[in-house]
Amino acid sequence: MAVVRVSDYVEAYRLRASSPDIHRLTARRTVAGTEFVSAQILEGMALTPDDVLVDIGCGDGRLLKLAEGRVAQRIGIVPTEEEKKRLESVLPGVTFETGVAQKLTLASSSASKIICNGVLILLPTEDQVTAALQEMWRIAKPGATVWIGETPEVDEYAHHKIYRGTSMLAFLWHILKNNGARAFVGMCRRWLRATFGHEQIVLNSAGMYYAPPAKMIALAESCGLRLKSYFRHKDLDDDGNPVNSQFRYDYIFGK
Which domains does the chain have, with CATH numbers? Predict the structure, then answer.
């Protein structure tokens, strides 16, 4: 399998769709963490039986599964056909469509509850974030609620010194410099296994979108959305305890 180089998140998620573990589509560490975040979002959305719920970038579909019986229709949006097929095989009661946040296939004024959690962070430019916000406004019914979650206020890759590039040698040097000799040797061994075996190393050079709350709110409101509230994102720590995110915020908007 060797080293796979990708430059955008669509290709990264296409690769994730081939994993035996469907939870890899969430890019989260644990199922418990995914369920915790999903439950918080659904609580904040105040679902009703008449709602059309749209989850843009729905991961493994866990949030839509939790919403079963609570809304009239559930729609999940994923960027690749590979993800769509995986999700349709495990959640037959949910409608899945292929599309990206910047260009949705849904009709205008068709959704009453819209979720876009951990997605804007993946878009490469502010213009594309703006396009995604405009699309959420377009598909929202009057009076709809829109959840935009996990938007960081700083570049987390830079803060945590995470390598973003396509050179394996540069990646190894980065690990040696930032993580030490033991981690370096471990990655060298993994590289050998990837070269001569079935292991895969994915080098992703895509960046992340980040904006402090004031900028994020102003951008969303310029697209027609109306702020209801915002707050620190909550997740689970390594011990399974709820904690506030260091950098990420969740926002609830209306139309």
Answer: 21-154+208-254 (3.40.50.150), 165-204 (no CATH)
What tokens were used for 138? 């377009």
Q: Which SS3 state, helix, strand or coil, does residue 14 take? A: helix
Contact 138, 108 (CB under 8 A): yes
Q: Is the pLDDT of residue 112 over 70?
A: yes
- Reading the block at residue 59, the tokens are 């991961």
Hey, what long-range contacts does 168-172 have (CB within 8 A, 24 or more apart)?
Answer: 168/3, 168/201, 168/203, 171/203
Residue 8 is predicted with a pLDDT of 85
Model confidence, pTM:
0.92
Residue 237 to residue 243: CA distance in whole angstroms: 6
pLDDT exceeds cutoff 80 at 109: yes
Burial class (CB in 10 A: 0-12, 13-18, 19+), 54: buried
